[in-house]
Amino acid sequence: MKFPENNIIDNWLSQNGAPLIGRLIRKNLAIADKVQAILASRKISRIEFAEMLGEKPFKVSKWLSGQHNLSIRNIVRMEIALGRELIDIEPVEQPNKFYQ
Question: What architecture is domain 19-83?
């Protein structure tokens, strides 16, 4: 999902210099876009996805708008339901100090 040029969110961010909020919005939009692409490729409706998650469709629509602050818990729930990673994070390879 991409906002049109000169939209209210980008205008506010540029005027108020809020890099944290800007990054949150961009990441939420990226996750929402990824989920929507997966749903489209699998021909899964938002209502079906809501059922997969055990959530109300209006709540899932809010998540997929990209303007809702997604929790890690809900992202992981979506990953499990879809069988796909939505956020790829490489683990830090450090020896566990408790087992040395």
Answer: Orthogonal Bundle (1.10)
Provide the whole-model pTM: 0.73
Number of Cβ within a 10 Å radius of residue 88: 5
Taking a C-beta distance cutoff of 8 angstroms, is the pair 86, 75 a contact? yes
* Cα-based distances in Å from 48 to 26, 32, 60, 64, 71: 26, 16, 10, 13, 21
Confirm if 70 and 28 have CB atoms less than 8 A apart: yes
Q: Where are the domains of the chain?
A: 19-83
Is pLDDT above 90 for 4?
no
User: Could you read off the pLDDT of 13-31 as tens digits, one per residue?
Assistant: 667 666 777 788 888 899 9
